[in-house]
Amino acid sequence: MFNKNRKREEPEVGGAGMADIAFLLLIFFLLVTTIDIDTGIGLQLPPAPEEDQEPPPIKERNLLNILVNAEGMILIDDEPTQVGEVKQIIKDFVTNRGEDPNLSDSPDKAIVSIKTARQTPYRTYINMLDEVMGAYNELRDQASQSEFGVPYSQLEDESDQQQAVRDIYPKKISIAEPDEG
Protein backbone atom coordinates (compact mmCIF):
# COMPACT_ATOMS: atom_id res chain seq x y z
CA MET A 1 0.00 0.00 0.00
CA PHE A 2 2.55 2.50 0.96
CA ASN A 3 5.55 2.40 -1.27
CA LYS A 4 8.49 3.59 0.73
CA ASN A 5 10.82 3.67 -2.22
CA ARG A 6 8.79 6.25 -4.00
CA LYS A 7 10.68 9.53 -4.53
CA ARG A 8 9.18 12.77 -3.48
CA GLU A 9 8.84 15.53 -5.98
CA GLU A 10 11.12 18.51 -5.39
CA PRO A 11 9.29 21.75 -4.63
CA GLU A 12 9.69 24.37 -7.38
CA VAL A 13 9.35 28.10 -7.42
CA GLY A 14 6.96 29.17 -10.11
CA GLY A 15 8.82 31.11 -12.79
CA ALA A 16 5.79 32.50 -14.57
CA GLY A 17 5.38 35.42 -12.17
CA MET A 18 9.09 36.34 -12.19
CA ALA A 19 8.92 37.97 -15.61
CA ASP A 20 5.97 40.07 -14.49
CA ILE A 21 7.78 41.17 -11.34
CA ALA A 22 10.95 42.03 -13.27
CA PHE A 23 8.92 44.05 -15.77
CA LEU A 24 7.16 45.96 -12.98
CA LEU A 25 10.47 46.70 -11.25
CA LEU A 26 11.92 47.96 -14.52
CA ILE A 27 8.97 50.31 -15.05
CA PHE A 28 9.20 51.50 -11.43
CA PHE A 29 12.90 52.38 -11.70
CA LEU A 30 12.40 54.13 -15.02
CA LEU A 31 9.69 56.31 -13.50
CA VAL A 32 11.45 57.27 -10.27
CA THR A 33 14.99 57.76 -11.59
CA THR A 34 15.93 61.32 -12.44
CA ILE A 35 18.41 61.96 -15.18
CA ASP A 36 20.44 65.14 -14.91
CA ILE A 37 20.22 67.19 -18.05
CA ASP A 38 23.04 69.59 -18.82
CA THR A 39 21.31 72.93 -19.25
CA GLY A 40 24.38 75.04 -20.04
CA ILE A 41 24.89 78.63 -19.02
CA GLY A 42 21.71 80.68 -18.92
CA LEU A 43 22.24 84.01 -20.62
CA GLN A 44 19.68 86.18 -22.30
CA LEU A 45 20.96 87.32 -25.66
CA PRO A 46 20.09 90.71 -27.10
CA PRO A 47 18.00 90.81 -30.26
CA ALA A 48 19.96 90.39 -33.48
CA PRO A 49 20.74 93.69 -35.20
CA GLU A 50 19.51 94.33 -38.70
CA GLU A 51 22.00 93.52 -41.45
CA ASP A 52 22.68 97.11 -42.51
CA GLN A 53 22.74 98.48 -38.94
CA GLU A 54 26.11 99.74 -37.70
CA PRO A 55 27.04 99.05 -34.07
CA PRO A 56 26.77 102.13 -31.87
CA PRO A 57 30.02 103.94 -31.03
CA ILE A 58 31.46 103.07 -27.62
CA LYS A 59 33.83 105.27 -25.65
CA GLU A 60 36.92 103.36 -24.61
CA ARG A 61 36.44 104.35 -20.97
CA ASN A 62 33.00 102.71 -20.90
CA LEU A 63 34.44 99.33 -21.94
CA LEU A 64 36.01 96.97 -19.39
CA ASN A 65 37.99 94.29 -21.23
CA ILE A 66 38.36 90.93 -19.50
CA LEU A 67 40.60 88.32 -21.13
CA VAL A 68 40.91 84.78 -19.81
CA ASN A 69 43.94 83.30 -21.56
CA ALA A 70 44.86 79.69 -22.28
CA GLU A 71 46.81 79.39 -19.01
CA GLY A 72 43.75 80.43 -16.99
CA MET A 73 45.06 83.90 -16.14
CA ILE A 74 42.50 86.69 -15.95
CA LEU A 75 43.58 90.00 -17.44
CA ILE A 76 41.39 93.03 -16.86
CA ASP A 77 42.47 95.85 -19.18
CA ASP A 78 45.78 93.96 -19.60
CA GLU A 79 46.41 93.82 -15.82
CA PRO A 80 46.68 90.34 -14.22
CA THR A 81 43.84 89.87 -11.74
CA GLN A 82 42.78 87.16 -9.31
CA VAL A 83 39.29 85.68 -9.67
CA GLY A 84 38.30 86.98 -6.24
CA GLU A 85 39.08 90.58 -7.28
CA VAL A 86 36.86 90.58 -10.39
CA LYS A 87 33.60 91.33 -8.56
CA GLN A 88 34.91 94.45 -6.81
CA ILE A 89 36.59 95.76 -9.98
CA ILE A 90 33.32 95.44 -11.91
CA LYS A 91 31.33 97.10 -9.13
CA ASP A 92 33.79 100.00 -9.05
CA PHE A 93 33.71 100.26 -12.86
CA VAL A 94 29.91 100.26 -13.13
CA THR A 95 29.22 102.60 -10.19
CA ASN A 96 31.89 105.19 -11.09
CA ARG A 97 29.38 107.71 -12.50
CA GLY A 98 32.13 109.66 -14.27
CA GLU A 99 34.27 110.40 -11.18
CA ASP A 100 37.39 108.46 -12.24
CA PRO A 101 38.37 109.23 -15.87
CA ASN A 102 39.61 105.62 -16.29
CA LEU A 103 36.23 104.10 -15.41
CA SER A 104 32.76 104.29 -16.96
CA ASP A 105 30.66 107.42 -17.33
CA SER A 106 27.54 105.80 -15.86
CA PRO A 107 26.05 102.37 -15.12
CA ASP A 108 23.92 102.72 -18.26
CA LYS A 109 26.99 103.12 -20.48
CA ALA A 110 29.25 100.54 -18.76
CA ILE A 111 29.96 97.47 -20.89
CA VAL A 112 31.87 94.42 -19.68
CA SER A 113 33.58 92.58 -22.55
CA ILE A 114 34.70 88.99 -21.92
CA LYS A 115 37.07 87.19 -24.26
CA THR A 116 38.72 83.79 -23.94
CA ALA A 117 41.08 81.51 -25.79
CA ARG A 118 39.92 78.08 -27.00
CA GLN A 119 42.24 76.41 -24.47
CA THR A 120 40.94 78.45 -21.52
CA PRO A 121 40.23 76.13 -18.57
CA TYR A 122 36.48 75.76 -18.29
CA ARG A 123 36.50 76.06 -14.47
CA THR A 124 38.36 79.39 -14.61
CA TYR A 125 35.93 80.78 -17.19
CA ILE A 126 32.89 79.73 -15.16
CA ASN A 127 34.36 81.15 -11.92
CA MET A 128 35.11 84.45 -13.64
CA LEU A 129 31.61 84.58 -15.20
CA ASP A 130 30.09 83.88 -11.77
CA GLU A 131 32.02 86.85 -10.35
CA VAL A 132 30.74 89.12 -13.14
CA MET A 133 27.13 88.02 -12.58
CA GLY A 134 27.61 88.26 -8.81
CA ALA A 135 28.78 91.87 -9.13
CA TYR A 136 25.62 92.84 -11.01
CA ASN A 137 23.45 90.87 -8.55
CA GLU A 138 25.00 92.71 -5.59
CA LEU A 139 24.55 96.09 -7.29
CA ARG A 140 20.91 95.30 -8.07
CA ASP A 141 20.34 94.08 -4.50
CA GLN A 142 21.75 97.33 -3.10
CA ALA A 143 19.59 99.42 -5.45
CA SER A 144 16.50 97.38 -4.60
CA GLN A 145 17.17 97.68 -0.86
CA SER A 146 17.56 101.45 -1.08
CA GLU A 147 14.57 101.99 -3.41
CA PHE A 148 12.06 99.41 -2.17
CA GLY A 149 13.45 98.01 1.11
CA VAL A 150 13.70 94.42 -0.14
CA PRO A 151 16.40 92.46 -1.99
CA TYR A 152 16.14 92.28 -5.78
CA SER A 153 15.47 88.53 -5.64
CA GLN A 154 12.29 89.14 -3.60
CA LEU A 155 10.74 91.50 -6.13
CA GLU A 156 8.00 90.00 -8.27
CA ASP A 157 9.20 88.70 -11.63
CA GLU A 158 8.73 91.18 -14.47
CA SER A 159 7.27 93.80 -12.10
CA ASP A 160 7.70 97.56 -12.52
CA GLN A 161 9.96 97.57 -9.46
CA GLN A 162 12.21 94.89 -10.92
CA GLN A 163 12.38 96.77 -14.21
CA ALA A 164 13.26 100.00 -12.37
CA VAL A 165 16.22 98.27 -10.71
CA ARG A 166 17.30 96.77 -14.06
CA ASP A 167 17.17 100.27 -15.55
CA ILE A 168 19.49 101.55 -12.80
CA TYR A 169 22.04 98.76 -13.36
CA PRO A 170 21.54 97.24 -16.83
CA LYS A 171 23.61 94.12 -17.44
CA LYS A 172 25.66 94.94 -20.52
CA ILE A 173 27.97 92.00 -21.02
CA SER A 174 29.65 91.22 -24.32
CA ILE A 175 31.02 87.70 -24.73
CA ALA A 176 33.41 87.67 -27.68
CA GLU A 177 34.31 84.66 -29.79
CA PRO A 178 37.35 82.80 -28.41
CA ASP A 179 40.75 83.21 -29.99
CA GLU A 180 42.17 80.20 -31.80
CA GLY A 181 45.54 80.35 -30.04
UniProtKB/TrEMBL annotation:
The keyword Transport applies. One of its GO terms (molecular function) is transmembrane transporter activity. GO terms for biological process: protein transport. It is a single-pass membrane protein; Single-pass type II membrane protein. The chain crosses the membrane at residues 12-32. It is found in: Cell membrane. InterPro entries: ExbD. Its main location: membrane. Keywords: Cell membrane, Membrane, Protein transport, Transmembrane, Transmembrane helix, Transport. GO terms for cellular component: plasma membrane. Belongs to the ExbD/TolR family. PANTHER family: BIOPOLYMER TRANSPORT PROTEIN EXBD-RELATED, EXBD MEMBRANE COMPONENT OF PMF-DRIVEN MACROMOLECULE IMPORT SYSTEM. This is Biopolymer transport protein ExbD. It comes from Fodinibius roseus.
